[in-house]
Amino acid sequence: VEGLIGNVFSLVSGSRSSKTFKPKKNIPEGSHQYELLKHAEATLGSGNLRQAVMLPEGEDLNEWIAVNTVDFFNQINMLYGTITEFCTEASCPVMSAGPRYEYHWADGTNIKKPIKCSAPKYIDYLMTWVQDQLDDETLFPSKIGVPFPKNFMSVAKTILKRLFRVYAHIYHQHFDSVMRLQEEAHLNTSFKHFIFFVQEFNLIDRRELAPLQELIEKLGSKDR
């Protein structure tokens, strides 16, 4: 596992591939959040993912969730970036996670009524929307002493619920491409980290996880 974890971080930091779908979201160096991110990377390096997602002693839950949400955005950004050429209007005319799950996009402000669109269009909307949330200092304050808003947890839950859909689409529609690129270890380790994190803090409703339920159970059983 240690080797895989290291690979995920080299993948995320861009040493293996500089191809991201959207610009990477940087946590400012020297900030407390940057220290938390470094702590997360260090515990991930130990190979114990269940332990790595736990709230470090004495830390603020909102801040821990914020740092990890940014990190997952960057990981998914990089993973999806490696397969964008295979995810096209022609190959993926609808945003789906297998035949039983189809997603329509709405953000509640610009697009209020859910629209049916291709997977690349949906993921572009989704990642742009997430990026806008992460860049909003009133939602994701990066300065010490600036409090998180009262609705932070519900915002974070919506972001993570939507990021899950990108994993689900990649697994259902593009896993053969991931295998050809020899990226399955990165994808599996990143997804396992993501799932353990959302399970630890009960951040995504079980129904939302249904498209990858079998995989989630498999990843969990390996870790017991």
Automatic annotation (TrEMBL):
The keyword Metal-binding applies. Zn(2+) binds at C87, C92, H169, H174. It comes from the Eukaryota. It holds the Pfam family Mob1_phocein. Keywords: Kinase, Metal-binding, Transferase, Zinc. One of its GO terms (molecular function) is kinase activity. This is MOB1A kinase. It comes from Anhinga rufa. The lineage of its organism: Eukaryota, Metazoa, Chordata, Craniata, Vertebrata. The gene is Mob1a.
